[in-house]
Amino acid sequence: MRATLLLSNLRNNKMAQTTLPNQAQAEVNRILDDFLSKSMEFRYSILGRFKSDCEYFLGNGARSVKHLWAGDVVVHIEVMKGIHNHLKEKPEWLSMEQILEFEAKMTSNKSSN
């Protein structure tokens, strides 16, 4: 599956620093397989949605996972990494570094931004 290969490549490149439990990895694979089968326009759009979810989660969302499309911080971030890595033209409005910053902030126990 494309998503499995993509996740493998992410880990080999140290872009994904999280070791996912089997259930979470299966969920990431399922979501990526679905998203990567859709149009480029959809991929950019959903990536923008995921970015907005991260910003809300860290701000007015009070770090509640109910505000994340994926419903789980780790799955949400891993899907963002997968979509971003799969895009030939990277969006100017979201870099991999920003995704990694979201990951660090969202997986920390701190309640501050």
SSE layout and pairing:
Layout: H1 2-12, H2 22-36, H3 40-58, H4 73-86, H5 96-107
Helix pairs in contact: 1-2, 1-4, 2-4, 3-4, 3-5, 4-5
Overview of the structural elements:
The chain has helices spanning 2-12, 22-36, 40-58, 73-86, 96-107. It is mainly α. The protein is globular. Residues 1-17 have low confidence and may be disordered.
* Number of beta strands: 0
Number of helical elements: 5
User: Which geometry do the CA atoms define?
Assistant: globular
Fraction in helix? 55-70%
Question: What's the overall average pLDDT, rounded?
Answer: 86
Unreliable spans are 1-17
- Number of structural domains: 1
Features:
mainly alpha, disordered N terminus, 113 residues
Summarize the structure.
By secondary structure, this protein is mostly helical. It has helices spanning 2-12, 22-36, 40-58, 73-86, 96-107.
